[in-house]
Task: inverse folding
């Protein structure tokens, strides 16, 4: 990783935006990467604006990959005010925003954020995290420490 990219990631991590659960979320997506073991959950809340349903707020939790946290922080700000369709149309590199191009070994970190967004927003019911944990807004960690809640996790390719 270049020093420049490392600095941009550290800048995003110095003041991460939108970390944590969103208790009254309308949609939740949880994805994981089996290779590195990272998981990311994204909560989305909508509002009506000018006759359109737009994203009012999005928050996330992950287990700690710095690049994924930096991308999720930027992406959850970027999708504010967009419709689900507009947010889904964003490409991986757009979600990474000011971090700029990521090196090949870090692209999957941004894809994890994109995957969580897709899992939350795509209309396909089977891709949505409809587990009780998601519905109650429980934390990512709660899903594992309280297995009775269940978890719908999508592993990305
Ligand atoms: Fe796997 Fe970042 S190292 S998500």
Result:
């Amino acid at each position: 990783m270049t020093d420049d990219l490392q600095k941009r990631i550290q800048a995003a991590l110095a003041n991460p935006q939108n970390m944590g659960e969103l208790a009254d979320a309308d949609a939740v997506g949880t994805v994981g990467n089996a290779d590195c073991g990272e998981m990311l959950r994204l909560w989305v809340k909508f509002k009506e604006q000018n006759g359109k349903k737009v994203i009012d707020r999005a928050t996330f939790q992950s287990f700690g990959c710095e690049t994924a946290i930096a991308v999720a922080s930027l992406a959850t700000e970027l999708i504010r005010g967009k419709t689900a369709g507009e947010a889904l149309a964003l490409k991986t590199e757009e979600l990474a925003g000011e971090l700029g191009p990521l090196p090949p070994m870090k692209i999957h970190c941004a894809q994890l954020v994109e995957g969580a967004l897709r899992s939350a927003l795509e209309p396909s019911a089977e891709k949505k995290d409809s587990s009780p944990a998601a519905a109650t807004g429980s934390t990512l960690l709660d899903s594992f420490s309280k297995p009775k809640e269940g978890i719908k996790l999508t592993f990305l390719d």
In short: The longest strand covers residues 39-49. The mean pLDDT is 86. Helices lie at 3-14, 66-78, 84-88, 92-95, 104-121, 132-136, 140-145.
